[in-house]
Design a protein that fits this description.
The chain is mostly helical. It is 74% helix and 0% strand. It has one domain. Helix 1 packs antiparallel against helix 2 and helix 2 runs antiparallel to helix 3. It is elongated. The N and C termini lie far apart (45 Å).
Length: 120
């Protein structure tokens, strides 16, 4: 049973990039010269979208690994503690990703570019 669960988890983790592969950030279409603040914020926004996607994928992987560790712990307190720390890492990844989405909007309001949402 344990071997079957390990194989199923490995297959699910291997298929995970295929499920999120539909989300893409096209960095190739960015302007090459920075003529004003809005172009700079557009470039920063594209990078932040890429980082946001990566951090959310990492968070999902940590949650899956934590669930697997918790389910296979069998009452072992050390494995339960390890699973709890993995969930904590996933929450930290989501918080960092959320801040990465908020920072450009705050920066835009701070420099007074007149943009309330820059589409990040």
């Amino acid at each position: 049973m344990k071997k079957t669960l390990q194989i199923a988890t490995a297959v699910a983790l291997a298929a995970l990039p295929l499920m999120v592969g539909a989300q893409s950030v096209n960095i190739a279409n960015l302007p090459t010269n920075i003529s004003n603040v809005n172009v700079l914020l557009g470039k920063v926004c594209s990078i932040i979208n890429l980082l946001f996607t990566i951090l959310l994928i990492v968070a999902v992987i940590f949650i899956i690994l934590a669930a697997f560790t918790y389910l296979t712990a069998g009452g072992d307190p050390e494995k339960v503690k390890k699973a709890s720390s993995q969930v904590l890492y996933a929450v930290v990844a989501v918080v960092v990703a959320t801040f990465a989405k908020i920072i450009p909007i705050v920066a835009s309001n701070f420099i007074g570019s007149g943009i309330t949402s820059i589409g990040c």
